[in-house]
Amino acid sequence: MTYTINLKLIKSKREKYGYTQQNMAEFLGLKTRADYFKRENGDTRFKTVELPVLSKKLHTPMKDFFTPRVDKIETDEARMIK
Q: Residues in domain HTH cro/C1-type (predicted)?
């Protein structure tokens, strides 16, 4: 099983606490707001060292950032139905 970062949760928590994308960029030590925007929108991945900072600032356990992703496995039976 693989896991993905729950970007919707991160965005909703950021908004709940009233942080701007610029604030988050500064917290994470990023150069620009656009660098944070790309992470929050999934264009760039959050780095492992950034997750503890997010956890602290968003008052959320790091484990809550991860959601399981189940890859679709096509079986022979499913192919015959098509």
A: 10-65
Cα 24 from Cα 35, distance rounded (Å): 10
Each residue's pLDDT tens digit, 9-58: 999 999 999 999 999 999 999 999 999 999 999 999 999 999 999 999 99
Residues 6+ apart with CB under 8 A from 57: 17, 19, 24, 27
* CATH number of residue 11's parent domain: 1.10.260.40
Q: What amino acid occupies position 52? A: P
CB 3 within 8 A of CB 68: yes
Q: Which residue has the tokens 């356990």?
A: 61
Angle of CA points 51, 35, 26, to nearest 5°: 65
